[in-house]
Amino acid sequence: CPLNTNMSSALLLATLLSLPTLVNTIKSHLNYTSQSSKNAKKSSCHPTKFLFISGHSSSSGKSSVCMSILHTLMHKYDISASQLAYIKPATQCTATQGIWKFCHAHGIECCGIGSLIFYSGLTAERQETESVEQAERELLDAIEAKIAELSMGKRFVIIDGVGYPSVGSVVGASNAAIAAHMNAPVLLVGKDGLGDAVDTFNLNRCYFETHHVKVLGCIFNRVLDIPYSKKYVGLYLSRHKLPHKAYGYLPKIEHNVEKLFQRCCGKGEVCKIVPKTARSMKLSEEEAKLNEQMNGNFLEHVQWEELIGDVAQYYHDTRI
Fold first, then answer.
1. CA–CA distance, 74 with 89 (Å, rounded to integer)
2. pTM of the entire predicted model
3. In 3D, which of 162, 165, 115, 164 has the Cα closest to residue 140?
4. Which residue among 35, 70, 200, 253 has its CA within the 20 to 30 Å range from the CA of 15?
5. DSSP state of 274
6. 81: buried, middle or exposed (CB in 10 Å: 19+, 13-18, 0-12)?
7. Please, are residues 53 and 160 in contact by the beta-carbon 8 Å criterion?
8. Residues near 189 by Cβ (< 8 Å), separated by ≥ 6?
9. Using CA atoms, how far apart are residues 300 and 249, in angstroms rounded to an integer?
10. Does residue 1 have a pLDDT over 90?
11. Distance of alpha carbon 127 from alpha carbon 172, whole angstroms
12. Are 82 and 107 in contact (CB under 8 A)?
């Protein structure tokens, strides 16, 4: 294996010092080269791409968008379910979610409850920790390790955020901190309308950007008047020359999605964990029909080719 110029300089210096040093330097170089070759072989085919989904609040439609992106990757890019994964690294609600059922039904690896659960009293406990910085670092490292474990052999991993962007900042693991730690680009799920939609988008994207996280753009959800929102939100983005894209405007579904899919409890409480039995993870006929409707709306109203292309471009890899 040929040595580069930097290594040649190192060898020359080592020769001037002593023969044992020269031997150790060569061994170190060969070991490094061997490891680099192995790593290159592992990642040369399809390096894992991450996409972090965040929103303006809890129940903004983040998980539904996650589901539709996974559906699109399978059906429009012919990516097998075994090459996809979903994870929610931080959560408060631990009851069975619709996205878990979707993943279970299609054979997609799913981690609905990650390393961080916001149980009652956690935030206060964290403030009493002797070394806050160390505790925060360990928490982010644990989240990273879980995502890394899940992403082995995957081409695409969807990371589902919790609440709004700064949720978790009190323990050093906000959505933005996690996205930054994973070097993952962000897609925001936004509101209906114009004023509130734009103002909320700016508020949320700015929080991520203060953490040096790339925000690709937004999908506006539960939109009542799509032509109106599309025209005026588009005008705002173009006139202010923002680099972010409005990838689409999803219509409001009359069906009570939250009531059907969410099994969450009241404010400030954590739901009891529902065992992942085959029965609890089975999609009902009603749920399956709703999934089909939401995925159909996504394909019709979202510029999904541009979105997936932008994720690939972020990783400097045109392959999906």
1. 23
2. 0.80
3. 115
4. 35
5. P
6. middle
7. yes
8. 53, 54, 55, 56, 60, 61, 62, 65, 218, 219, 220, 221
9. 10
10. no
11. 11
12. yes
Euclidean distance between CA atoms 266 and 71, whole angstroms? 31
Give pLDDT, residue 121.
87
Cβ(194)–Cβ(227) below 8 Å: no
The per-residue pLDDT for 201 is: 98
CB 53 within 8 A of CB 217: no
- pLDDT tens-digit map of 202-234: 999 999 999 999 999 999 999 999 999 999 999
Question: Which letter, b or e, does each residue of 63-79 get, where b requires 16 or more Cβ atoms within 10 Å of its Cβ?
Answer: bbbbbbbbbbbbeeeeb
249 vs 270, more confident: 249
Q: Residue ranges of the alpha helices (H) in 77-222?
A: 98-106, 122-127, 132-150, 175-182, 195-210
Q: Tell me what the mean pLDDT of segment 152-162 comes to.
A: 97
**14: part of which helix (H) or strand (E)?**
helix 5-17
At 28 the pLDDT is 38
Looking at residue 278, its pLDDT comes to: 52
What is the token pair recorded at 204? 């949320």
* CB burial of residue 11 (10 Å; 0-12, 13-18, 19+): middle
Q: What element of type H or E holds 216?
A: strand 215-223
Q: How far apart are CA 53 and CA 183, in angstroms?
A: 13
Query: Residue 271 corresponds to which tokens in the numbers above?
Result: 């739901």
